[in-house]
Design a protein that fits this description.
The strands form 3 sheets. Strands 1, 2, 3, 4, 11, 12, 13 and 14 form an 8-stranded antiparallel β-sheet that branches. The chain is an alpha+beta fold and 272 residues long. The protein has 5 helices and 16 strands. Strand 9 and strand 10 form a beta hairpin. It has a single domain, classed as 4-Layer Sandwich (Glutamine Phosphoribosylpyrophosphate, subunit 1, domain 1), CATH 3.60.20.10.
């Protein structure tokens, strides 16, 4: 399966990636050869980098290890293709505009029959590629569109967005493993379902959380492929597997968490 990583923090911080190391932490390096991507938010917009080639062979990855821009919201995806060719349009994270803001989505899992279970009722959001992940993203944005007022430029409440994201996740979970990270430039939404564990069995947890406070010792992720500038603040990290030996919190099966300003802002009550 693909590997996911995300960060929400109170203040912008520099996050660099050794994506090859990050993939190795979550499993054998070999399968994660079908592309990579990383998104750094800056207010309403996002700096998005993607390549369909292996991270291990990328000069751009080497550059970004030490030159990632400061950000309060970061999402990353390392692809192991299950649907769609290994080409740029199928490489995650995916980006769309809604409400005058950049929205970014990345998923791991395999949603069999998603086009029958989730219909695109308008042409506002359409896939560019062939993956189940991008189709799911377009379906989610279609549901969220009614909340975003394009005139007043107001941000809907976290609770109203979380409700829609949680209902959407519940609808698609029966199709297969469905772990995703989604950010709308204001809040990071994380859904944990199931993933292939070290013994080859598909079961929970699908994602893990690690919360850190300015009153605690800074977490050192260097050996796990994530390089963070030391800064006293609040932050939450999300990963497919724990990146350190610390007490990462395994998310419940079917749980959706909203992260904002480096804090766990809200959790969905509906789980499998």
């Amino acid at each position: 399966m693909c590997e996911l990583f995300a960060m929400s923090s109170r203040y912008p911080t520099t996050v660099g990636f050794s994506l090859e190391t990050l993939a190795r932490r979550g499993g054998d390096v070999g399968p994660h050869k079908d592309g990579w991507g990383v998104a750094y938010f800056e207010e309403k917009d996002v700096f998005l980098l993607r390549e369909s080639s292996p991270a291990a062979h990328s000069g751009l990855v080497k550059f970004m290890e030490t030159n990632g821009p400061p950000s309060k919201l970061v999402l990353s995806h390392i692809r192991h293709a299950t649907q769609g060719e290994t080409i740029l349009r199928n490489t995650q994270p995916f980006k769309r505009e809604l409400g005058g803001r950049a929205h970014v989505f990345a998923h791991n899992g395999d949603l069999v029959g998603i086009q029958d279970a989730c219909h695109l009722e308008s042409h506002r959001f359409r896939p560019i590629g062939d993956t189940d992940s991008e189709f799911a993203f377009c379906c989610l944005l279609h549901r969220l569109a009614a909340l975003w007022d394009p005139v007043e430029d107001t941000v809907p409440s976290v609770e109203s967005r979380l409700e829609i994201v949680a209902e959407f996740a519940a609808q698609l979970r029966p199709l297969g493993p469905f772990n995703f990270i989604y950010a709308d430039s204001d809040t990071l939404f994380v859904h944990s379902h199931r993933r292939t564990q070290d013994d080859g069995v598909v079961r929970p947890p699908g994602l893990y959380l690690l919360a850190r406070s300015c009153n605690e010792q800074a977490v050192d992720l260097t050996q796990s492929g994530v390089i963070m500038a030391p800064l006293a603040q609040e932050l939450v990290l999300v990963a497919s597997v724990p990146l350190t030996d610390e007490s990462w919190e395994p998310m419940e099966e079917g749980e959706v968490v909203a992260l904002k300003e480096g804090l766990v802002w809200a959790r969905s009550s509906e789980t499998v």
